[in-house]
Amino acid sequence: MHWALGETGVRDVLVLQHVGCETLGAIETALTAGGFRARVIRSDLGEAVPDEPGDAAGLIVMGGPQSVYEQDQFPFLRAEIKLMERAIKKERPILGTCLGAQLLAAVLGANVRPGPSKEIGWHRLTRTADAARDALWRDVPNTFEGFHWHGDIFDLPAGATRLASSELTENQAFRYGKNAYGFLFHMEVSAAMIREWVAAFSAELGRAKIDGAEIVARIPEHLSQLEQIGAQVYGRFVKTLA
Description:
The chain is an alpha/beta fold. Helix content is about 30%, strand content about 25%. The chain has a nine-stranded mixed β-sheet with strand order 2-1-3-4-9-8-7-5-6, with helices on both faces. α1 packs parallel to α7 and α2 crosses α3 (about 100-105).
């Protein structure tokens, strides 16, 4: 599958989406501002995942309730892994969020597995020293409250650079090569998205004994800074697409 440059000069970026409510959010704002268009593929709904990135400027892989080790249950994950492998070989920029970060780690040979507990809601992130020299993460505060919704964790892939950690999860963000990034936590979220997730995944919150109302109540305290950091990081990622 190939998508050529349109008459308007807008280039496509492939986006793999795994559930209806986990959309691009702030990432789409950055793409549009940079002159790019999201080509969203709902692999969870049976839409075909291309074998090659084609003429797409880059690849963005979003989150979802699936797990890397559930490929028998969700065969489309195999197709996504193949596409990511070929995008890496072609040195196309890649951004993986949550499940997308786990898939990127797996593609790079790292072990992905269930964590000791769910990390959902607002948890503090600490930037690494290497992040201060990263093209996307420079000037990001040393610590800030990130938004999280994951149960799986992964080892740092060989040759990758760790960019951020939390108290529960050592590998929250990493870079591989010059332009492949995995973020386990979420910076793309809006207040509306967080409320939607709390409602959509209420059963998961109940099983984990996590108070969804408290997550929503903390939005005014933490979201503004997270949105600023996300706009900065995503804006810089979009520049790598050029």
